[in-house]
């Protein structure tokens, strides 16, 4: 199953530039020291101008290829403890101030790298024993470590070691996520909720929307996931090479929504996109039109990561929303579906809405005004929607039941920018219903008892959950009965969506 790590020069790009948050608690009273970590062989990274197509092919063949991957992470015990301490120190909130910690060795299948960086993943649901992580392979600055009870200090790599790290990738990714749901905070919840399978199936279902309407140059506009058994090995100090304190857990490898993501899908070298993780995006309410910085957090502007402490950066970013040629201004001026289509990629939004309502992606910009990404596509001049954080799916639609309408207005329970205009316009509403009908056919076919979606859920159970359970301690095993509950949810959902009455003036979607 494992392959040798062959990184052809045409396929690896050093395209992602990241910076350390200087407000990080990791950066409090840092101590500069000499390089303490062994020099590693230089890794061939290839030319920086590798195409999006080459990167897509490489990541598909080596990372998101259906295999159950195996990861080993070796770090000092004190580093592991500080990751949890730092999380709590930041009041269990978003990890904007969580810094990068030093990993001595990171092994992916048969590929081993030294001097990798790890931090608690940047999301709103925090302070759980099974932390989610971001892993960076090309970060040579702003990485901290410690041993015993000593304070943090920044790792100071020598010039040759730093050069070997910079631009390094794992099969085309400079960074990846190790995903657990925030609900997976104990073995009780791990076994009870089966969140990994829900997210794994949801990313697959989201990708199927591209079968209905193509919105990218290649690959679906959704982050890819893969199952991995992850062993953490903890060392007493830098000189300890035995590191016998070990734990094994299951994670999903998740593709980050970063510059590489947009390069692969759209050949966009300088993406501009906004994260909607504050629970108020696209929601008009008193004193807030859903288009503020707090609600639409700019992540990248013209290919450069936005510095939230830089007022000039934020003003420039928000001009894309509220400026004379910004999204809001153009939306306000659009008086017909054809004019709206010049502002929004309606196929992208309908793909997103069809997925969200079918999979029960209630924790979303479509449901509770939280999560997902708003992306500006320069060649077309249109805005697109991309789903993210899809762990709360195929289970329930927020507070109550599964009998939600295709418009999903009951979940939001408030006016919604973009979506209400879509469903309140008979022409667009009818177009969406046809779109949704095609998507349901793609997921369920003509036989619900043997549908592609059902088979994917069972595949996740048999190929990954059962297989990993055989190698996990009892406290880390997933409950395979949750697969049946996902199937039951899917059956209920398709019946609801196929049997909803048509609004007056709408055409038959079939």
Structure description:
With about 500 residues, the chain is an alpha+beta fold. Among the domains are: about 25-180 and about 220-255, no CATH class; about 260-400, no CATH class. It is about 30% helix and about 15% strand. The protein is built from 15 helices and 14 strands. A seven-stranded mixed β-barrel has the order 1-2-3-4-7-9-8. A five-stranded antiparallel beta sheet has the order 12-11-10-13-14. Strand 2 and strand 3 (about 110-120) form a beta hairpin. Helix 10 packs across helix 13 and helix 14 (about 450-470) runs antiparallel to helix 15. The chain is globular and about 70 Å long. About 50% of the residues are buried. Residues about 1-50 and about 185-190 have low confidence and may be disordered.
Which stretches are poorly predicted, pLDDT < 50 over at least 5 residues?
Answer: 1-48, 184-192
Mean pLDDT score, rounded? Answer: 84
Instruction: Name the assembly state.
Output: single chain
Structural class: alpha+beta
CA distance, first residue to last residue: 44 Å
Query: DSSP strand (E) fraction?
Result: 15-25%
Query: Judging from the principal axes of the Cα atoms, what is the shape?
Result: globular
Total strands: the figure is 14
C-alpha-based Rg, rounded: 23 Å
Which H/E pattern describes the elements?
A: HEHEEEEEHEHHEEHEEEHHHHEEHHHHH
Number of helices: 15
| Strand order in the sheet with the most strands | 1-2-3-4-7-9-8
Q: How many strands, which pairing sense, and closed or not: the largest β-sheet? A: 7 strands, mixed, barrel
- Helix % is 25-40%
